[in-house]
Design brief:
Blueprint (H helix, E strand, L loop, with lengths): L6 E10 L2 E11 L4 E5 L6 H8 L7 E6 L2 E2 L5 H9 L1 E4 L11 H12 L4 H14 L15 H12 L6 E5 L7 H18 L2 E5 L3 H7 L2 E6 L4 E6 L1 H7 L3 H7 L5
Parallel strand pairs: 3-8, 3-9, 6-7, 7-8
Antiparallel strand pairs: 1-2, 1-4, 4-5, 9-10
Helix pairs in contact: 3-4, 3-5, 4-5, 6-7, 8-9
The structure holds adenosine-5'-triphosphate and magnesium ion.
Pfam family, one: ABC_tran
InterPro entries: AAA+_ATPase, ABC_transporter-like_ATP-bd, ABC_transporter-like_CS, P-loop_NTPase
Protein name: ATP-binding cassette domain-containing protein
Amino acid sequence: MAEEPVIRAEGLSVRFGARTVFKDVTFDVRRGEIFVILGGSGCGKSTLLKTLIGLVPLAAGRAWLLGEEIAAAGDEARRALLRRIGVMWQSGALFGSMTLTENVELPIEEHTGLPRPARSMLARAKLGLVGLGDAAGRLPAEISGGMAKRAGIARAMALDPPLLFLDEPSAGLDPITSAGLDKLIVEIARETGTTFVVVTHELQSILAIGDRCIMLDKEAQGMIAEGDPKRLREDSTHPTVRAFFRREAA
Ligand SMILES: Nc1ncnc2c1ncn2[C@@H]1O[C@H](COP(=O)(O)OP(=O)(O)OP(=O)(O)O)[C@@H](O)[C@H]1O
Ligand SMILES: [Mg+2]
């Protein structure tokens, strides 16, 4: 029997008022893979992440995370599930008045009864993992944008979640820093078996890290492609998908 997927999404639809953002979105995410959600601005990528973790209600469809249907889970089960998921939000700023260590400690404090010294030891270990061991005592204003992204990943990883969501981790970074971040994500995935769901529209990143992807489209109000990004680049006949992967005007 095939292993149960880490995420199962079946016919997801989301509406805000009278406006449908997307409908009939169906996909599976397998254990240990880097799954990319791509598409133009406003097509619903961030909304899809929020829907998956139960922050935005579904108009239709069902979603399971780590075997649990979040919309049907009670408060306790939901909290337990969220503890097993790490999220780096698109706007996911660090708290400016707290050091990097204190920022990474936050989810540990919220979800565990660990004493302060143990929390900060764990936090510093996570910062070390993303190459920020030496910057642990700095404030967010004292580090670069790329370092802040890595600190955000460290915070999302604080509780060793088997599933990590990253919403545009490399947006606004220079290509070299962005490539470094891609390398880090691949290393974490391969070394820890963590499953990643990454929202990005950076073609280089998608081709470098994505095992599989789905592409959403605003006009189509849903998915227009699914599969291995390298195959999509070669084989897709959908004009928007081709345009994206081949950098052509549609
Ligand atoms: N809480 C909300 N209430 C009403 N409309 C919303 C809400 N959240 C998102 N939207 C709308 O849903 C659409 C999709 O937004 P979303 O943030 O998911 O797009 P996105 O694909 O992540 O875009 P970007 O690439 O710019 O981050 C947008 O038109 C947005 O204005
Ligand atoms: Mg977004």
